[in-house]
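Dear colleague,

Following up on yesterday's call, I've attached the two folding results inline so they're easy to grep. Please treat them as preliminary; we haven't cross-checked anything against experimental data yet. The first protein's sequence and structure tokens come first.
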Amino acid sequence: MNQVKHLFTRYKMLALVIAVAVIWLFFSWQTEGGFLTPRNLSNLLRQMSITGILACGMVLVIISGEIDLSVGSLLGLLGGLAAILDVVYHVPLLANLSLVALCGLMIGLANGYMTAYLRIPSFIVGLGGMLAFRGILLGITGGTTIAPVSPSLVYVGQGYLPHAVGIGLGVLLFALTLFLTWKQRRNRALHGLAAHSLVRDVLRVVLIGAVLAGFVTTLNSYDGIPVPVLLLLVLLGVFSYVTSQTVFGRRVYAVGSNMEATRLSGINVQAVKLWIFGIMGVMCALAGLVNTARLAAARPRQATWASWTRLPRALSAGRRCAAVRAPCMARCSGRW
């Protein structure tokens, strides 16, 4: 019993995977196998991607010891802005994405400035933003649904990758796994460190390859890999690298561990928190755009709905990822 407890304590991701597997098996049993069909899994992944994008930014916020309650309302506001730019002003997709992301960055930096420099508690800043963003969305939409959005924007939320592209993506990720495993073993040998067992690394690569093959095959058996899922995978890779391999990522952990010691060591704690909230704003912009594209419309009550659905899930996922203190942002998937 103690060995099992030690195993789950050391490998916290294992407990999440087992919990998710049990939940999936239960619903598959209740639906007579319908839950694990490729179509249902594809739809679940598409819905999950919006919350996952928010969770990527929320992880940094929670690790730094702060909280942002406005992400759901900001998602709705920026999604409504994307719909207005597309439907009313016919702004091209890339320009639309850039403008919405810029707005998200500026709003996030404003939240970060009030939290880091004006020393207003992030809970208060987020609560005020949550209420303000709802009102702004009602104002800019005039209380009406903005629809229909252009096909190019709809593709971002409802499109699928061609099967060949999905297979190529899986092969690329497997090749990247091989390269990183070889690089890790070489670096440990160059520095005179004991390398992991070769059998362990081989089994790890084989397991990752099997997961990738099953993932691509399952989704290709329906319509292919959804575009929002691809976006989430890219963001998970980027945030995984940032939190584990960059100075900024280390500073985020340092700020959350002991802010006073971090400040005395010469790190600009206020600037770190400022940019954490800025990144959170950009994640809200991307999630809002994907959400609008998935629905092919923006509703005036979207901010209120997102506050009570996306916010708790993003906070929960961010809290779990922060708790395990792992460099791999893919642990966000443990929330679902």
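Below is the second protein, in the same order (sequence, then structure):
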Amino acid sequence: MSQPAKEPALFKKSRIYLVLLICIGLSGFIVFRETQKANFSVDNISWTGWTFFCLFLGLIMMVGRDFFYMVRLKMLAPDKLTWRQTLNVILLWEFASALSPGVVGGTAVAMFILKREGINLGKSTAMVMLTAIFDNLFYLLLLPCLFIWLPLDNLFPAGNSWVISSGKWVFWIGYAAVAVFNLIMILSVFFYPVIICRIVLGIFKIPFLKKHSEKAIRFTNEITYASREVRKKNAFFWVKFFLATGGSWICRFLVLNFVLLAFLELGLLEHLILLARQLVMWMILIIPTTPGGAGLAEMLFTDFLADIAGTGTLILTMAFIWRGVSNYLYLIIGSILLPRWLVSTKKAQISRESTSEPSK
């Protein structure tokens, strides 16, 4: 009998405690940084019924985001995962992302999670790959759609801080890189898997790249398996999958909109600007820096949204509420869920492997 999949180092208690300390330390730094600004003001924050209603809607958006994530997994593995299992996968996937450098970390851990839930390695790799392709596709298409109503100048705030100036370069370079990479992945998985795999294997026969040939072989195997999964579904299936992806992204972004709406009066233009600015912030947060983008996310919030939300205690309050709901909450949920889940899935995995052995 094979041993159950080894627990990733990311799930070690020491790593979790370290991340919590980093989050607390960086939060303190952000508060200090903002209070040192010349135009910092102590705002009189009003907590009204409207405030709590909008914050409640923000929580609903988080639930909606995770629900659409669950729908996608259920669509890809309808007979392999129950709704309870998909919820566990999503919550732990977000937990892993909160522990990983950058906001889209935890991909390798996602395959471990799926495998522990009974999905074989090939299918789990294909599932992660397909969700990533559609995530990137929706992201790439949303930006030009926003420009139908929004001038390009509103994509970045006015100002000369290093966060804003460097953010422009990071965004446009990153956007182009994601577009090229996702185009290659779509061609590989949906249209020309054999040709792309041959090209990749040919490239890695070049002498100075030969040492990475094993990784290239593993990548082409993943492409081949994913393309087989694609051929099992019709075009209407992928339209529904894309709509579920869109639902998850819109819910993700509306969390921030509702947090600001809880304290500010916003018109349609401001809501569109917030959506556009979040596209920029998300691209910058891909860069592996701190776990879950801790500190950097709050810094981007205060710099990129200062022209809408101001520079006083109010913007700090909104930044920490936003991060609390969209990131730190998963650290708490994951810390509670993980130990029980590891025990239950280990027992289930051993049971599956024992029943699959031929009877003596």
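For the second protein, one point worth flagging: The CA atoms of residues 92 and 337 lie 8 Å apart.

Best wishes,
A.L.
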